[in-house]
Amino acid sequence: MSDEALNRVDSMHEKSGRRRDARIRTQFETLSDSGTAVLLDISYSGALLGETSVLPDVGTVITLYVFLQPVDPIELVGAVVRHTENGFAIEYKDVSPAVRRLVDDASAIVRTPPKV
Fold it and tell me: Could you say which residues of the chain have pLDDT below 70?
C-alpha cells in the first residue's frame, strides 16, 4: 500500500473514531537501529510510540525491539503512518505469532488487577 493510501486509511479511522483493532495501553521500552522510544499502545495492526529519540519520516519502515525480559526481545516491523506530538505510529508489515503474543500478554496485564 502506498504512503498516500496508508495516510488516507489512518485518517479515515481517526475521523470515524473507530480503529480496526482495539488498542492496549503499555509502557514498554523499545530500541531500534535509529534510537529509543516507549511503546505507548499496541494492537494487532500497529503501535504508538512516544518519547522517541528520533522521528522517522512517514513511510519509513523501522524495526523495533521490545524488551519484556532482559534477553530475547520481541521484534516489531512496521511503516511509520503518522507523527504525534511526541512520537509516531506504525502499522505492521506482517503480524507474526510473537507480535500476537505480545498484544495478548499486554491485554492480560491490563485486564488483571494488581494483587494486594
Answer: 1-21, 110-116
